[in-house]
Structures are given as C-alpha cells and as structure tokens.
Amino acid sequence: MIIGLDDTDSVNGMCTTYIGTLIVEAIKEIDRNLIIEPPKLLRLNPNNPYKTRGNGAVSFIVSGTSNTEVLERIKSISFDIISKYSESGDNTNPAIVFLNENSITEEIKLFAKRALHEMLSIEEAISLLNKINAEYNFIGNGRGLIGALASCALELEDFTYELIVYRNHNKRGKKCVSEESAMQIEKRYSPRIFSSYDLKNKRMVISPHSDCPILYGLRGESPEILIEAASLIESETPYKRNLFVTNQGTDMHLEEKEIADVKPYSSVIVKGIVSKNPYTVPGGHVFFEISNSKKLICAAYEPTKEFRNIVRKLSKGDTIIAYGGVLDTEHGLTINLEKIEIITLAEVQKIEKPICKMCNNPMKSIGKDKGYRCKKCHTKNMEASIIKLPRDIKIGTYEVPMCAKRHLSKPLLRYGREKKFEEERFKFNYTNFDISFEGI
Ligand code: ATP
Fold first, then answer.
1. For the chain, which domains are there?
2. Nearest Cα to 275, choosing from 254, 249, 293?
3. Under which EC number(s) is this enzyme classified (predicted)?
C-alpha cells in the first residue's frame, strides 16, 4: 500500500513532512519492517498559487503485510494524525490517499508528471482515485488530494536525499541552529551536500525562518553523509528526524519549449535572442526580453542578488537559453529566471565622432547625413567611428545564488552527479533508522 498526503500546513505553522514523519513513526511502532524505504518528499509545481511554501507532498510505501486488520489500523492511525495535527485555515485542505501499488495506472502516472508543470483540478484527482477504487480522506475542499495522489505516482529518475531534523511542533519562535556549523557543512561537504550556507551572501539556507517544526534540513547525494554531517550541527535539542528521498535539486520541473508554446504556471527551458536590453526597475528587479517569433519577458528579481549583475550585462542580439517558472504578469508572460545559459554574444558597438587623421582632433558633425569636418584643418569625413565594445561577460551557464534557489532547481554543482532512483532505492537500511532522538 502507498500512502500519500498533502496540504496539512499553513503559513502559521506545521509541515506536511512533519505530519508524514509522525505517521511513519506510528506505523514503525507497530512493526519496524512495515516501512523499509525512506518516504518521498516530492516538490510539485513551484508556480502553484495555492502553495504555502515549497509545494511539497509526502508519500511512503507500507510493505510486508497483507493483513487487512493491520492495514485498516494503519489507515485509521494515519487519518487520526492528520486530523489532530493539521493546521486549520482557509488555505489548508489536508488530504490522505491509500493506494494499492499495482493499481497505479499510466493515466495516474501522467497526472503526477503534469502536477509539476500545470495546474490540475480537484475533480480530476477525485475521478482518478474513484476509477481505481482507492481510499481517500480529506478535510476542507479536497485540494490536498491533488498533491497526495501525485506524490504516490510520480516516477523518479534522478533524485536526492534530505535529512530533516525537527523541533516539537508546540515549540514556536526563533530557532537555534548555529550558523557557524552550517558554514562548516558547506565548506566540508559541498558538493556532496548542497544548499547549506550561501557563503557569498552570508545566509544560512538549512533552517527555514517560518514557524514550522523544521529545525534544519540537509540536502545531498547519500543518506550516510547527511547523517554524519547532521551530527556536527549545533542546535537546540532536536525532537525528531526523518530521511526523505526527494526530487529537490533535479530540475524535474523544467520542460524544453519554444517561446510560442510557453504557458503560465509552467517551468521551462527556452532558447531566444535578446530583443530588449536589460533594465532595472525600482526595487532592484531586472528585466529583459527574448524573442524567437514571439517575445517573452525574463526577470531576475531582487532576491537573486548578484545574479542580476550577470543579467545586466546581456545585450540585444545575444543568444541565450532561459530556465525558470512562468507567470502571466500585467506586462505579459514572464519567466522568473533560475538559470541562464549564454550561447553566443553579439558584437556591441558604440558610434562616435571620427578623429581627424591630420590633426588627431575629434571632428564635428556638419548636419544630418552630411558627415563630419575638422574644426582646425577643415578635412571632411563622411563616416562616423564605429567602436567595438568589449563584452564583460563570458559564454556559459549562470545560476541564481543559493539563498534564492527554488527547491527543485538543480545547482550547477550537481551537474554530472545525477543518479538513478531505481538503481539506488534499496541501498539504505531504513528499517533500522530511528526517527525519535530518544533512541539515538
Ligand atoms: P509545504 O511545502 O510547507 O508542505 P506547500 O507549499 O506544499 O507547503 P500546501 O499547503 O501543501 O503547500 O498547498 C499546496 C496545495 O496545492 C495542495 O493542496 C496540493 O494538493 C495542491 N497542488 C499541488 N500541485 C498542484 C498542481 N499542479 N495543480 C493544482 N494544485 C496543486
């Protein structure tokens, strides 16, 4: 049986991974062997307007039993935990689904894939669940069913791990996690552990500022290295921890598109030629346009910090590939840049008055299309001087800084480190993994 859940949190607190962890722990208390693989934390469409934070949903597989009594107990425990701990509120619509692994159809797998690129409806999720006679339960309008179902059916290729360490959900306010230890993790373990500390912007990335129970999360390529690194982090007393298989840092949300086919709410990789030079607006956001039969606005918003300095150096005629999420703004379709790849740089010229060859003085214009004349020796010259300006930018791929990176965005440091989920999935012994710190 696969269990999926989503939408249990609100901006005021709680977190779907935490509730998932409480459920996994409760099931492991019945029998450790019921869950032998780490749960999955899957990030869905990052442009989803309904998301609280990172549009994450959680799923896990219960194996090793076909005992109906045990399965019914698991379902009841799971829903009780959701009901007890979910944050209530207008924008919180918790849901849980229970699927038979063999019942996941190609149509559902496609739905899960689309959940990263499009906006889907609650009705479609319910119809798919009903088609396979799946059990599900929800509070509120049922929106959580979209993510809960998608998280059960999403097929992974490349993947990463996240080890999340929690405080008790009743504890609120400032979290004590040592910045210094996050910095040490970055220095010692990057790139095997990524997105820990933004050294340039001096920003700790592992600990969310929101009032959720996450103390910190370490993201990387292997469970063992994350567990080792976590033991070096100084923080307030941790309460629980869990290891997740995730699609974070994989670029799974991006799809190659032609500009003409780009739709709002999708995340795309598009090639185009810069057709309007970069300009900065109040607030520090930088915009430019690319074209390829149709135009698309590209945005490097203020939080992308030094990335904007690269963007500002682009010029009309440059060929680039833009990566990012698309929204329909008042100015038109706009891509929120996560990365850019500069393919070719155009020649940038400056037109200046010519220099007199006889006396080395700048010549003066003698009227439109009439050319130039030297004030001193009266030599005439029809042509202006065309000066080729040096380009202070190189062909290559540039990314936003760590402190502005989306969960799904693949850091450049991960290029070439991709691994296959199906090959690695049973390598880590999750059966013996302790969730509660009392047992560690
Ligand atoms: P957190 O990351 O802290 O768990 P969140 O950012 O995941 O929070 P949720 O509170 O889970 O935000 O809200 C997202 C809601 O959007 C969920 O109800 C989920 O089912 C739904 N959803 C996710 N992806 C899509 C999609 N592609 N189309 C429509 N709805 C979606």
1. 2-155 (3.30.70.2200), 160-251+417-421 (3.90.600.20), 255-345+391-407 (2.40.50.1010), 348-388 (no CATH)
2. 293
3. 6.3.4.22
